[in-house]
Write the structure tokens for this entry.
Amino acid sequence: MSSRRGSCVGVCRSSLAMFRLILLALSILTTAASSHPHPLDPLSPAELTAVRAAVLASPLISDRPLTFHYVGLDEPDKTDVLSYAEARSSSSRAALPRHAFVITRAGGQSHELRVDITNATAPTVLSHAIHHGAGFPTLTLDEQFEAATLPPRHAPFVESVRRRGLDLDDVLCAVFPVGWFGDAANTNSQKKGQQRRVVKVMCFMAGETPNFYARPIEGVTLVVDLDRMAIVDYKDRVVYPVPKAEGTDYRAGKAGASYTRHATVPDVVVQPEGNGFHIDGHFVSWANWEFHVGFDMRAGMVISLASIHDAETGARRRVLYRGFLSEIFVPYMDPTEEWYYRTFVDEGEYGLGLWAFPLQPGVDCPANAAYLDGYYAGQDGKPVQNKNMICVFERYAGDVAWRHTEASFPDKLITEVRPEVSLVARMVVSCGNYDYILDWEFKTSGSIKVTVSLTGLLEMKGTDYTHADQIRQDAHGTLLAENTLGLYHDHYITYHVDLDVDGTNNSFVKNVITTRRNTNTPGSGGADTPRRSYWTVSREVAETEADARVDVNAVPADLLIVNPNKKTRMGNEVGYRVVPGALTAASVLDDDDYPQIVASYSKKQVWVTPYMRDEKWAPGLYADQGTGNDGLAAWSGRNRGIRNEDIVLWYTVGLHHIPCQEDFPVMPTVSGGFELRPANFFERNSLLKTRPPRFGQPPFLNCSCGSHSG
Ligand SMILES: *[C@@H]1O[C@H](CO)[C@@H](O)[C@H](O)[C@H]1NC(C)=O
Ligand SMILES: *[C@@H]1O[C@H](CO)[C@@H](O)[C@H](O)[C@H]1NC(C)=O
Ligand SMILES: *[C@@H]1O[C@H](CO)[C@@H](O)[C@H](O)[C@H]1NC(C)=O
Ligand SMILES: [Cu+2]
């Protein structure tokens, strides 16, 4: 194997990494490690333990068992966090109180608690309330695994398996939230209008394949009451053949003998001066950026306090207060009994942090990545470690940040090129069958690019069909293999982006592209020329939330978050542009369809709301069987003022997924996202202030680049 440092015997790409550091300005060192946590640091294992002790000792909840469904940082007020952040020397930084927000289940009720853990050896419960509204908190991992073990011990299920000639030992079951279909539709309710915390359990055949999702025992549905941990309903409605295991395995060496030529992956990244970034606790500094990487058991990775150093003025300028993934809504498009309810709000139901598994060094993240661990509360409240949950790495992928060749001078050619190097913070969620790779990428240009890549396994439906020609009526999907349908569905990935562009008060501006007729009348903006039309910009500043619900596919417009109180020397308002990337689908379901009511925000990609501490989760705090009545669309419905206020941008990445055979047995990544680009934020291209690599010397002269030497 090649050595880790010095010589470059990997592929060319790895040798290119060598000059990464050289081109980057030296990292701005953060203040010395402080003894107290940063106010936005996620709860530490000691703090989680303290929360648990306080909740279990509290006389406010006497019912047992008591299960923990959410424990997270109840962050201090924004003004306090900002004052803390602005006090740049550790001596003037007084620790802020540490509070946790907790949701537990006990006695058939959801309890909300706030716990003071400032002194972790003497935690105190500050408040307690019982949630009486619709919906339930995130499912714990333990209860899902427990519910999944019930079917093989249920006599009618054993009979269904036997009748299909299947081997009970190969059965594997998984839990599916039931969604919300109106209060009357909850046939399991004891009293009308009262929801029961139930899930559906579907079973599959694993056997010789780990891809059990490809082998459903279609037609069999069990309903489990989670509070009683008992099967309360059972249906065996239709029988379809279980698809065969052959061809479903995605593991290396299991896909048959022949391979195409492989692409090489650098297993060595040479950075003679070390990483270009610096991590102090949860604070990352790199090139001109500085930000905090946190973690939440529901949202997963949380980026806070991102600020950029302006080389022109020497000032550090605020860009993003907080950014995180708020919800992933995945409705399936088959209205039949076994599928109609599959209208996942993955994040609220499953918790992204709970389903983030250790990243594979060198593959999930490149060889030069650093890793952060996460901790969450298990069902019993005890801290659980999520090792290598987030990675941070510098990315150089051979792209150009800017360039120009000037060929107009008679005897010289001027060429200036700068490589595009960026810093990525990444987390991967494997939410049951699907995997989401979630990136926040910071560029020296001042841009922040948010990318979600979808991969993993489809949810598949068993069918009689073995050839597409047999399909006579709507199959609600694509035939992927014999007896296997990949069903139509959507993915709506909604981000909460609290931009604070150069300050807290911002406005949302739509620069709408409008076509004008050239009237040939001087003074009207026209001119006496043969030109008949042109476009110009109508600037609309959103006054209220209603003005800020945007379908990005409907109107050609530049969307901006500006600071109306700050102007460039040229007199333009400083701002950031919201640039939609790939995957801009919006929901086409009817407005009165239940999943659409829950996630009604999915009809527009862009919403802007005034900042409110508790407005975090797009479908509402209680997403399992939630009605959406305390979610993004409901908040926006108040139509509050958003001009020159502290505002939050909500951006939804959307995909109508029509499965194709290449998505089987495992799906190649599909990526989408959006970019936040400075727009009149800097006085000019800030990349001119990025030091060029070795002042013109080719940076990779010392490499012996073999194409297949790894
Ligand atoms: C934390 O609480 C313990 C137990 O009550 C007490 O002994 C200790 O002095 C407290 N620490 C601080 C810093 O207040
Ligand atoms: C920011 O908004 C708040 C709330 O509307 C207002 O009180 C304050 O004056 C604004 N600040 C600036 C600088 O406009
Ligand atoms: C690269 O090679 C040149 C010429 O052989 C040598 O002078 C230089 O020291 C080398 N640089 C490094 C970093 O090894
Ligand atoms: Cu999909």
Notes: The radius of gyration is 27 Å.
